[in-house]
Amino acid sequence: MAINPNQISVSKIYPGNYTNVLRYWHEAKSVDFLNENGTSETLANQPVGGPVGVIFRPGWIAQQAVGYVDLSYQALGSVNQLEYYTTPYGSGLNGDNVPFTNASVIIPSPDYHKDIRADITNGISVPSGAYVYRVGLRLDGGDVVSSGVGGGSATPTLGLGPAVSVGLTTTPTASGFFATVVGSNSRIENGSFNSSNAWNDANLHAVTNGTTQYKLFTVGNLGGAAASGLAQASGVYDPRAKVGKLSGKDKALAICEVCWLVPDEPPKRSDVALQPAGVVESSIYTSTSPSA
User: Which residue among 28, 108, 268, 285 is least packed, with the fewest CB closer than 10 Å?
Assistant: First the structure.
């Protein structure tokens, strides 16, 4: 099993210290360091400031990525926070704007000043060598509807998963799986939530070829058969959202969660402690000379 070098450098939480948040947000930078032989090396695209993983079982690191997708306004990529959301999703009933169909999850920065530490806007990227065991999804802030959307479904569905594809459903498999929330009467109600969970070797999603991005989609059953997979659906929107105005307290957000396991790196010299005082090498406790 390959160890992903961009994910083993996490800030580890050990048993008895679970009060910390499993923050996924991080920056990617080039890092200069001295290796074990004292040679200077530069590693590219290394995570800085996170992610955080918990040692829930010796040899395995558990990580959790939590982010959101705004279903009221389109994120158009502006770095100006006053203009970050300029165009609401919509339909023929509330304007000519397109409905929401799919988007990358946004991982918010822990810093108020986004120009210093920006949001991660390219989604939840699960590293190679990881095993996804949980996908969770919640609608929070307001209802979304499919009324007036061309080809809109009476049972609109939001799905968080790796790709709309044959064979990928809410049933956990080694190829990947979704969590979905399903509406009725052309509406998904605020507060709707669901999760898909896997916990055995047969159905953990094994990420083997590079990173896999989990995104949010509006989905429907592929070919009308639930077991065959999920396909891109027509879309939904927040009926309260207008240009420059929202008729409500909160925007409709899809809160997205993906949890996975990665193998930890083998212990280092500093991890070899024979007693609490940290004795590592001693003629009393260990042999530091080759035997004859």
Answer: 268
Instruction: For residue 269, give Cα distances in angstroms to 26, 166, 260, 266, 282.
Output: 27, 47, 27, 10, 14
Is the pLDDT at 145 greater than 80, yes or no?
yes
* Residue of 180, 214, 261, 238 lying closest to 66 (CA atoms): 214
Q: Which residue has the higher pLDDT, 208 or 256?
A: 256
- Give residue 116's pLDDT: 65
Question: For the whole model, what pTM was predicted?
Answer: 0.82
Range 123-135 burial, b when 16+ CB lie within 10 A, else e: bbbbbbbbbbbbb
Q: Which two tokens stand for residue 191?
A: 């507060």
